[in-house]
Amino acid sequence: MRSLAPIILFVYNRPDETRRTLDALRKNDLAEQSELIIFSDAPKNSNEVSRVNDVRTLISNISGFKQVTIIEQRYNKGLANSIINGVNEIIKAQNKVIVLEDDLITSRLFLTYMNNCLDFYEENKTIWSISGFTPNLAIPPDYKHDIYLTMRACSWGWATWKDRWINIDWNINNYHQVSQKKYRSKINRCGNDMRWMLSDQKKGYINSWAVRWCYNQLIKEMYTVYPTSSFICNIGMIGEGTHGSFRKEYVTNNINESIPHIENITEDERVVMSFAKCYDMKMYNYVGVILKRIGLYKKVKLIIKSMIYR
Q1: Which UniProt keywords apply (predicted)?
Q2: Is the residue at 1 inside a domain?
Q3: Which residues, at least 6 apart from 156, have a Cβ–Cβ distance to it below 8 Å?
Q4: Per-residue pLDDT tens for 199-239?
Q5: How far, in whole angstroms, is CA 181 from its chain's centroid?
Q6: What count of other Cβ atoms lies within 10 Å of the Cβ of residue 63?
Q7: Residue 219 maps to which CATH number?
Q8: SS3 state at 299
Q9: Total number of domains in the chain
Q10: CB-side neighbour CA atoms (13 Å) of 236
């Protein structure tokens, strides 16, 4: 009998987004055969209590899955620690996991695609993870595959195996290598924003599990499998993402409703260059870096959000 990967869902204080995420996930073809584990973070202050409670009420009566386990944290961990500790806890007893956050709408074939890839690439130790999302990059007309490879992971609906996850250096102790030319070019190869985010992480301006996850992959020169058409639509990008919310590359208008052909492929340099352009820093990204370093990023983000939703 086929062994499906458990789904880990991280939720916090967004009941509307969480409901939409669960509704889409429940419609997946493999949902009734899959175990769902939900980590609910605790409120970080009194202002968040009501919305966290709304989310916990929402998730308390979930159906449509083989088994549902809900883990409610007593103290606020924050997203980075929630994901690192949560995946650590589950992957101890599991060989593979599929991970989602509370603002990701999935195609009904998302779980099928992820499990197919997990099974197919499990013994291929050059594969670091599987991504359900793809940015809107320009695929060459003569590219004949349904998937592609890059040396950069994605945090918007992903999967991996125990033997990849347990070898991550979350402290990025070899960060000094970034200053060396050969490593700098390697890290920038899939988007020059990575070096800036690593610097901000090391200096404490941000706390990102995903940046450290990507860094470990880049240093090890391993690959993430991406679909050429996205199985994920992010509905929580406004002001929330590392790159901001105004880049058309991250907006998914249609999600994939067909099963891609899974095969062994090699990296295509043209695709990698197109992929990197989606993550290369724009002027407003550099402004965001400066705002983070002087402590004004969150205030400016709130002002922009209020202007958008006025």
Answers
A1: Transferase
A2: no
A3: 101, 104, 131, 132, 133, 232, 234
A4: 888 888 889 999 999 999 988 999 999 999 999 999 886 54
A5: 28
A6: 7
A7: 3.90.550.10
A8: helix
A9: 1
A10: 21
Q: Which residues contact 173 (CB under 8 A, 6 or more apart)?
A: none
Rg (CA), the chain: 19
Confirm whether 192 is domain-assigned: yes
Provide the whole-model pTM: 0.90
pLDDT digits (tens, 9 = 90+) for 37-84: 999 999 999 999 999 999 999 999 999 999 999 999 999 999 999 999
Amino acid identity, residue 184? R
34 to 3, 71, 122: CA distances (angstroms):
9, 17, 19
**Pairwise pLDDT comparison (187 vs 114), residue with the higher score:** 114
Name the residue among 176, 194, 159 with its Cα closest to residue 5: 159
Q: Is 295 helix (H, G, I), strand (E, B) or coil?
A: coil
Q: Residue 55, Cα to own-chain centre: how many angstroms?
A: 21
The shares of helix, strand and coil residues in the chain, as percent rounded to the nearest 5, are 45, 15, 40
Partners of 35 in beta bridges: 67
Residue written as token pair 């800036």: 196
- Is the torsion defined by CA of 10, 95, 25, 278 positive or negative? positive
Within-domain flag for 2? no
| Residue 104 domain boundaries | 7-308
Say which amino acid occupies 119. D
